[in-house]
């Protein structure tokens, strides 16, 4: 996650820098694959009736940008509040994405079968990934394979499969080589 910190009409204090780094690390733990760029701007605004500082946090995510602005006297609490609000907004984006993926799954064949292509395979670790036509990445384990062994399938093979939401995203409940 790329981070840019800007200051307007003031100098960045070390404690603010450390707080921003700490908040970025939290975001990285929870949303590493979601947030592409993060920009934090701290501006002295003595003329504003809301207070002497504005904190603006801008996160770039795929197909969107999330902006959080906070005004007040003390920068550190504004940073905490802005990152908390950003975290809630990112959580909502992830939730919508998962609901969207679940909706796509239900659009599959009447018998629940979906089709895809083996994108990556790790035979020695007994797992791989299937990519669907709508670019959804689906995990599969060797235990899900039907009528085929792990060493008999290759990247680029067409497969049929059924899918469910796993702990870490979509996963295949069964996989067969072939096409619809």
What does this protein structure show overall?
With about 180 residues, the chain is an alpha+beta fold. The protein folds into 2 domains: about 1-105, Double Stranded RNA Binding Domain (2-Layer Sandwich); about 115-175, Nucleic acid-binding proteins (OB fold (Dihydrolipoamide Acetyltransferase, E2P), Beta Barrel), CATH 2.40.50. Helices cover about 30% and strands about 40% of the residues. It contains 2 helices and 9 strands; from the N terminus they run βαβββαβββββ. The chain has helices at about 15-30, 75-105, and strands at about 1-10, 35-45, 55-60, 65-70, 115-120, 125-130, 135-140, 160-165, 170-175. It has a 5-stranded antiparallel β-sheet, with helices on one face. The longest helix has about 30 residues, at about 75-105. The two termini are about 40 Å apart. The relative contact order is 0.11. The mean pLDDT is about 85.
Secondary structure layout:
Layout: E1 2-8, H1 14-31, E2 37-44, E3 53-61, E4 64-72, H2 75-106, E5 114-122, E6 127-132, E7 137-141, E8 158-166, E9 169-177
Parallel strand pairs: 1-2
Antiparallel strand pairs: 2-3, 3-4, 5-6, 5-8, 6-7, 8-9
Helix pairs in contact: 1-2
């Amino acid at each position: 996650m790329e981070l840019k910190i800007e200051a307007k009409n003031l100098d960045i204090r070390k404690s603010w820098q450390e707080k921003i780094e700490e908040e970025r690390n939290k975001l990285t733990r929870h949303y590493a694959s979601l947030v592409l760029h993060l920009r934090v701007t701290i501006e002295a605004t003595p003329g504003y009736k809301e207070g002497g500082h504005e904190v603006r946090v801008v996160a770039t995510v795929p197909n969107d940008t999330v902006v959080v602005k906070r005004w007040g006297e003390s920068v550190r609490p504004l940073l905490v509040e802005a990152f908390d609000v950003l975290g809630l907004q990112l959580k909502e984006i992830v939730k919508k994405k998962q609901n969207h993926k679940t909706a796509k799954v239900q659009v599959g064949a009447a018998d629940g079968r979906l089709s895809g292509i083996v994108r990556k395979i790790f035979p020695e670790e007994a797992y791989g990934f299937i990519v669907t036509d709508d670019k959804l990445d689906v995990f599969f384990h060797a235990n899900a394979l039907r009528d085929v062994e792990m060493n008999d399938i290759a990247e680029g093979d067409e497969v049929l499969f059924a899918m469910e939401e796993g702990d870490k995203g979509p996963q295949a409940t069964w996989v067969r080589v072939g096409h619809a």
